[in-house]
Design goal:
The complex is a heterodimer of chains A (404) and B (524). Chain A has 404 residues and is α/β, with parallel strands linked by helices. Chain A folds into two domains: 185 residues, Thiamin diphosphate (ThDP)-binding fold, Pyr/PP domains (Rossmann fold); 109 residues, Rossmann fold (3-Layer(aba) Sandwich), CATH 3.40.50. Helices cover 35% and strands 21% of the residues of chain A. Chain A is built from 13 helices and 16 strands. In chain A, helix 1 packs across helix 2, helix 1 runs parallel beside helix 6 and helix 11 crosses helix 12. Chain A starts with 12 loop residues before the first strand and ends in a 12-residue tail after the last helix. Chain B has 524 residues and is an alpha/beta fold. Chain B has two domains: 274 residues, Thiamin diphosphate (ThDP)-binding fold, Pyr/PP domains (Rossmann fold), CATH 3.40.50; 181 residues, Pyruvate-ferredoxin oxidoreductase, PFOR, domain III (Pyruvate-ferredoxin Oxidoreductase, domain 3, 3-Layer(aba) Sandwich). Chain B has 16 helices and 15 strands. In chain B, helix 5 crosses helix 6. Classes of the chains: A alpha/beta (404), B alpha/beta (524). The complex binds thiamine diphosphate and iron/sulfur cluster. Iron/sulfur cluster binds next to loops of chain B.
Chain lengths: 404, 524
Amino acid sequence: MQPMRSHEGLLIGEHFLLGDYAAAEGAIMAGCRFFAGYPITPATEVAERMSTRLPQVGGIYIQMEDELASMNAILGASWSGAKSMTATSGPGFSLMMENLGLGIMLETPCVLVNVQRGGPSTGLPTLVGQQDMMQARWGSHGDYEIIALSPNSPQELFDLTIRAFNLAEKFRIPVLVMTDAEVGHMTERVIIPPPEEIELIQRPLVRKGDVDPDHFRIYRDPESGDDGDVSPMAIAGEGFRFHVTGLTHDERGYPAMNAEASEWNIKRLVKKIRLHRDEIIQLEERHLEDAEIIVVSYGISARTSLWPIEQAQKEGIRIGYLRLITVWPFPEERIRALAKNIRAFVVPEINDGQILREVERCAAGQAQVIGVNRLGGDILEPQQVLSALRAAAGKPDTAEADMS
Amino acid sequence: MAGRDITDERQFELSGTESFGESDWITGLHPMDVLLRGERLPHIWCQGCGLGTALTTFIGALQWLEKNQGWDLDKVSVVSGIGCTGRIAGYIRLDSFHTTHGRAIPFATGLKLANPELKVVVISGDGDIAGIGGNHFIHAARRNLDITVICVNNFNYGMTGGQVGPTTPHAARAVTTQYGNFEYPFNLPYLAAASGASFLARWTVIHARRLEWTLREAMMYPGYSFVEVIAPCSTSYARWNPEGRGLDPEKLRRRGLELMKHYQAIGKVAHGTHPKDAAIKVNKEGAIIEIVEGVFSDEPKPDFQTAIDEQVQIAKGRWQATQKALSERSQIPKRTDIIRRTEVQLGGFGGQGIVSAGRIIGQAATIYDKLEACFTQSYGPEARGGAAGSQVVIASDPIHHPHLIEPTNAIIMSQEAYAKYVPKLATGATLLIDDGLVTLPEERRQDLKTYGIPATQIAEELGNSRAANTVMLGLWTAIIGAVSKSAMQRSVADAVPPKTVEVNLNAFEAGFNKGLHDQGSNAV
Ligand SMILES: Cc1ncc(C[n+]2csc(CCOP(=O)(O)OP(=O)(O)O)c2C)c(N)n1
Ligand code: SF4
């Protein structure tokens, strides 16, 4: 059984908090008691905060030798039953891809925060980017589904880090919090409710005595249970003497090297997410009912689009706003449905058009899809977005709008 | 929660054709079958491979620990990387993790740290541990985490077909060094010793009993223990090298045995050898001619976990202090008038408290006046050369755009910051300068309302030059009015070291009074 949650050392109340710190506090509130990481701007402050805060709540912070090790260490900790997390940025995210795959394959709950900076390669260490959005989806090899959330403020970094843990635990999967240098390095008010008001989900778990180890299956066959559901997990030291492997495996976790096993294995990994899409996908929608143009964006770019949207609305353009709080899985059906009745989607993002491709795929020619892009280094200028909105609506781009 | 009510057996019903539990394999016909996953046999290893012996000695050591030391083997986890050796995790009936190539050690690190009750053993190949995982190997040794690392060295990459590896002797052949290895190998115990490991040993699999004894010791050892196990690779290494010359490739078992015999002949048991003298010796053809074996060193050092535990007490004490400070925070009534978007640029040089001044404004606005505020600071190239800059946006409504678009006012404390930020201020903006440090140029913007105060000088007179930023904040509060005075005073007190609260509040007052006095009248 889970020990009673201790509230000792939890920060509550209102704080003027750095985004990265808010992620750390969210993790601690979610019950994260293990953090392994490697310094990298602009994610370092997550690690710094964890290094002072985790020992205060009886958790473990460790700086590993690199991000390969960090990712592995959090997987190991998770198999010891700890809620675990790491945080990084582009170059480290690349190194984590190998064992993000292992985490997916072993069905290991854990959370990875990517405070995105401009890339590729060492890129722009201190400056913002949203260029890892596709890497988040496809960066590790093989077929799989992933969950990625995108916060737009320190408050949301707090809230969504908790949600990331809940999703990770529920679906036995690494969950990505895809934030960016702007949100991670901004300081705003963060309201931390008392722990009794926060719902936490614990992984489905078998403990000693729950089931005969002989008959325990670490990956229950979805055909024999409720289809696509998540198997209960055992953790090390409970007497189940289970085996898990990054190789394609069967329900016992044993290597199984053939096409049928691969089919079974991958279907498990994708089904458990696809069947629960509606529950996982979280969107913020405004003024979609009669919109002719819909802005689809996420994170800081969604937030900075709000002023140009209000401005364009004042100019008489009917604009809706759809913010992807969950970016992966992508809300395909919602976009498909909206595409039928509108003139265009406008997709502002700080990259060369990544989520744009997803919107295009779902719009499937039914609505125009227009990107508003900046290639890392700074957030989008309000005027740039406003011009794109006017263009999408077929209006002349003349007057400079007043910000105030 | 789902975790709670899982007692329904139906959920664990077996599927497919399998109708028995794993323990049906435990027949007692073989003394070790309790710890073997019989259902997974036969194993994938070649005939004559040394890995079977390595596994046998490992299991023997575990059984001994269970019998003689009362170990609960449910608490033992085995972690492997990838390779022929890595498959051991899949054949041993314990909690076992077959991870990615080279990553067994960091995985084990997380497993062990999150549950110190576990005994964690890493067992993997030489390519896995010393090649792709080399960095993890040395760092785990440095930390002295209480895990055991068993590296089976067969002098090549077995699983992928016998390529050269980090332990292949110089001049020896591998599929990728057909003209002889032009690199030099690691001496693994020496590498581990240099990295800080204190228990170091090496045996060949032919010395199975002594290997088993050493494995017991290693697993009981409090701290990082490293055992190198030399094992023949009958298929690959033996094929290319003098040790296997003339042996029938069709008879792999014989080839492996001959290799073992060779290792026996050239093995030199020498406990206590300095690891630097334990390099594996080869002749000009790359044939192995001497393998020093034994326990080389076991000098316990403070364990990593102990060091971590010691810190917890200090950390908890620190938390008490933080909590106390937070609980003493007093509240003031929420501000009800509407503050339109106010953009503040702060600039100066490092050490003046430009960043903390911006934070103080933001904290005053949000925590005390209950307004919205977004604070950002300049990082990287922007903040180089001693320059410091920070920005705050304040408003009653949610702040969509976090950056300054048209700064409505600025606090400037260096000439350089003046040159950098003043041109960007909005038309008609308010400029506050430390006029002891900033000289207004002849040619300057006439649209700005400029106020000066010798902040640094005033702070010095008050007894702490570091309070200059607080003088500026006082001036700013009086003139701009976007944040209330009592909010600012509280925020200043929250931010500065306890011993300097008084001097800072005096500094704030000095700036504030000057601001009240100057306001509307004698702008510079
Ligand atoms: C990242 C990665 N690179 C390469 C491989 C292919 N690979 C599998 S096993 C192996 C070598 C293993 O050699 P060693 O660790 O010496 O173990 P052995 O097979 O000799 O026991 C390699 C290179 C892999 N699985 N992963
Ligand atoms: S290839 Fe070599 S190491 Fe691998 S199983 Fe065969 S003999 Fe053993």
